[in-house]
Specification:
The protein is an alpha+beta fold and about 350 residues long. It has a single domain (about 5-339), classed as Glucose Oxidase, domain 1 (3-Layer(bba) Sandwich). It has 9 helices and 19 strands. The protein has helices at about 45-55, 75-85, 150-155, 180-185, 200-210, 225-230, 250-255, 280-290, 300-310; strands at about 5-10, 15, 35-40, 40, 90-95, 110-115, 120, 130-135, 155, 160, 170-180, 195, 215-220, 245, 260, 295, 315-320, 330, 335-339. The strands form 6 sheets. It has a 9-stranded mixed beta sheet, with helices on both faces. The protein has a two-stranded antiparallel sheet with strand order 1-2. The N and C termini lie far apart (about 40 Å).
């Protein structure tokens, strides 16, 4: 585990955070028991997930010493492809306004500290209520990070010796694809615990005519923020959330997706893998440790969904950059979608 909170303080906003999702919060005692299957997909055990992990792994693809993972797919050609998508010039932010009030689902809200004549903002990695990007050193599978790096050898009290958030210092410019499953299903939001499966992705592509391409950033809208605005918080700690089902992992691999984003934790919770370990997150595990891909949690996709629907366009130029925190496990990020 990361013992150090990585920080960057200045007038305006600062970020302090690190460590693993797996140790930040206690399991919600009222968490429902996962069903045995979702939309025809069985509940996977550890052995079956291990097989899938091997099948989707990008280990060695860009060399045995690679620490960039799918960041390698954001080539100059891909950036130019993204820039060519800009037609109207309209932009919206995908960052949710940082929450300053503690609540059932916000254990670490933004804190304002007066230091001399400077107002410093401090926050830590906040699960799904602060929009953030995870570093490749943030998640392992059975002790191994992406490309076989040994977690206990990479992490120190000073942070991540390899694959920290600073490797993304040049930022992200690529084609963004919005996947709006509530719109597909004709509902305002997906109820907590609803899995988004491979069949849903295929249905969305068929309805919109959009095909996800290598190097794309995909953003899954579940309607989390719309529901929260109307009904208030519904989850504590590891309570239920809609999100990606394990069945999408081979699809993400086959499509060569570079960035996986969502408006919640990305993983559907409870997950549909290994019921003996309710905190296991197959999407974070498969995407970060297996694919070496970039995960964006807690994105607010309400404005971009409204603009996309108005324009009838589900692709856009995606730009954004994390703070350059040496050895950091992650960072706040303000992603911009430009149509």
């Amino acid at each position: 585990m990361l013992a150090k909170w990585f920080s960057c303080g200045f007038v305006g906003i600062a970020l302090l955070w690190g460590g693993s999702h797996l140790t930040l919060r206690a399991q919600n005692a009222s968490q429902p028991v996962p069903p045995t299957q979702a939309d025809g997909y069985p509940l996977l055990g550890d052995a079956e997930f291990s097989v899938m992990f091997e099948q989707i792994s990008n280990w060695g693809r860009w060399g045995k010493d690679d620490v960039n993972g799918t960041y390698n797919l954001l080539t100059p050609e891909k950036r130019k492809q993204a820039a060519a998508l800009v037609k109207t010039g309209q932009s919206v932010s995908l960052e949710h306004t940082i929450i300053e009030t503690k609540g059932p689902d916000v254990t670490n809200p933004l804190q304002k500290l007066n230091r001399g004549n400077k107002l410093v903002w401090e926050s830590i990695h906040g699960g799904t209520y602060h929009s953030h990007v995870d570093a490749l050193c943030h998640y392992d599978y059975k002790g191994a990070l992406y490309n076989g790096m040994v977690r206990k050898e990479v992490e120190t009290d000073e942070g991540c010796g390899k694959a920290g958030i600073d490797i993304y210092g040049q930022g992200f410019v690529t084609r963004g694809v919005l996947i709006d499953i509530p719109r597909l299903k004709g509902v305002p939001w997906l109820e907590p615990g609803t899995p988004v499966t491979l069949k849903d992705l295929e249905a969305w592509e068929q309805q919109t005519g959009i095909e996800v391409l290598p190097g794309d950033a995909v953003f899954l809208r579940t309607g989390k923020w719309a529901k929260r605005a109307k009904d208030g918080p519904w989850t504590i700690g590891w309570g239920p959330d809609a999100g990606w089902h394990w069945s999408v992992l081979p699809w993400l691999k086959a499509r060569d997706v570079a960035i996986v984003g969502g408006d919640g934790p990305n993983d559907v919770r409870p997950a549909f893998v290994d019921p003996s370990n309710p905190r296991f997150l197959p999407i974070h595990t498969g995407v970060i440790a297996g694919l070496g891909a970039i995960i964006l949690d807690g994105q607010d996709l309400e404005d971009v969904a409204a603009l996309a629907a108005k324009l009838n366009r589900w692709v856009f130029m995606m730009t954004g950059a994390p703070l350059k925190i040496a050895g950091g496990g992650g960072s706040s990020i303000n992603v911009i979608a430009t149509f």
